[in-house]
Amino acid sequence: MSQTNFHQGAERIRAIPFSPVRKVMERAKEIEQQGNKVVFFQIGEPDFATPKPIVDATVQALLAGKTHYAPNRGTPALRKAIADDIARKNGIGYDPATEILVTVGGAEAINNAIMAFINPGDEVITFAPAFMNYANVVAMAGGKTVSIPLRKENRLQIDPEETARAISPRTKMMIINNPSNPTGVVYERDVLAKLAEIAVKHDILVFSDEIYDELLYDGAACTSIATFPGMRERSILMNGFSKAYAMTGWRLAYLAAPADLLTHMLKVHQYETTCVPTFIQDGVAASMALPETVAAKARQMEAFAKRRARLLAGLAAIPGLAFTEPKGAFYVLLDVSGTGLTGEAFAARLLEEKHVALVPGVGFSPDCGEYVRISFAVSEDDIDLGLERMRDFVSTLQ
Ligand code: PLP
Question: Distance of CA 39 to CAs 29, 44, 112, 264, 290, Å?
Fold first, then answer.
């Protein structure tokens, strides 16, 4: 008999939890299957259809037989379209030949960057609460996450002084998610400028997850940290199509970085996924900048803005709930401590008693026990129904 017990899985993944969002989703679906109307406030994806020009162009590519391998880096046409888009949004130039890598979603992009740069024992600074992939992939790489809290008294903005104090000789990377999931906060320019100074001073690589950068409210502007002095050469910019283009199921995202940094990530990508399906790349390259696509995105944004206004007004009227107004993405981080319940108990009871699903804050950080995350990527009718049920639920607690 073998000396090893394969049933336990590798040590590397034994302590890694499944995503808390998936867990809530599974329970919510069970409740729905029992014939109940569930409000899916836990969801992390737009409910809109992908813009029609993208679907049409991709079908055309498939019919035209674009079914073979693409270059590992991505097709030249899509890399060029992505570089143009980054230049339009951020004013930073990336060479499509050597500085763009097309990936199977943001999830692959995060994995590539961490696997390409983090050695066992290296420290990675994150800001908590954070998208759970960061800490879990860092753990898989044998690295250590050093998590800096985002405090409500600081409007969930990053505290640069606290960040500077957390730097050690082992700090290799800082991960910034702007706008943030799960807080919806857009980081202010002066905060980013100070973080950039810290990164340059201590020679730290910055991974900038900007997947929500086009979902902005109340005139908010999202600045890429890669635009600050000394930052282009130490930044890995990540963005993708899941959120702004309502394309979660297509699995399409990208990394942009100086050529020498990109090469390391290309190696991970080559052995992990090889390439994104060719017909998807051709379809998106031909259609992402068309006026009809841009107009479809703008309509989605209008709908998000209306939903957000409705949700925030409703939440503000429920006693015991507090929040920092989100300026980006489609999430609200709700402080439920005023109800006397922890975020976990609040989420569990609301799901079982009122059939409203949301994610407890501990899913994003062990220090976020007082929070739950609500997503407003659902219809206005569902927002109204969810609010009514939450109001009823909270009133039973008093
Ligand atoms: N980054 C953040 C902050 C996210 O919230 C998500 C998805 O929820 C992703 C990356 C991954 O997106 P995808 O893999 O769908 O492109």
Answer: 10, 13, 35, 43, 34
Q: How confident is the model at residue 323 (pLDDT cuts 50, 70, 90)?
A: very high
Per-residue pLDDT tens digits for 166-222? 999 999 999 999 999 999 999 999 999 999 999 999 999 999 999 999 999 999 999
Candidate of 242, 252, 364, 373 to mutate for ligand 1, largest count of ligand atoms within 8 Å of Cβ: 242
Q: Who lines ligand 1 at CB under 6 A? A: 44, 105-107, 131, 177, 181, 209, 211, 240, 242, 248, 253
Residue 1 is predicted with a pLDDT of 57
pTM for this model (two decimals): 0.96
327 pLDDT higher than 60? yes
What is the predicted pLDDT for the residue at 2?
64
- For ligand 1, atom 8, the nearest C-alpha belongs to 44
pLDDT in tens, 10-56: 988 988 988 888 889 999 999 999 999 999 999 889 999 999 999 99
136 token code pair: 């879990």
How far is residue 229 CA from its own chain's centroid?
Answer: 25
HEC-encoded secondary structure of the chain: CCCCCHHHCCHHHHCCCCCHHHHHHHHHHHHHHCCCCCEECCCCCCCCCCCHHHHHHHHHHHHCCCCCCCCCCCCHHHHHHHHHHHHHHHCCCCCCCCCEEEECHHHHHHHHHHHHHCCCCCEEEEEECCCCHHHHHHHHCCCEEEEEECCHHHCCCCCHHHHHHCCCCCEEEEEEECCCCCCCCCCCHHHHHHHHHHHHHHCCEEEEECCCCCCECCCCCCCCHHHCCCCHHHEEEEEECCCCCCCHHHCCEEEECCHHHHHHHHHHHHHHCCCCCHHHHHHHHHHCCCHHHHHHHHHHHHHHHHHHHHHHHHHHCCCCCEECCCCECCEEEEECHHHCCCHHHHHHHHHHHHCEECEEHHHCCCCCCCEEEEECCCCHHHHHHHHHHHHHHHHHHC
CA dist., res. 386 & res. 191, Å (int): 35
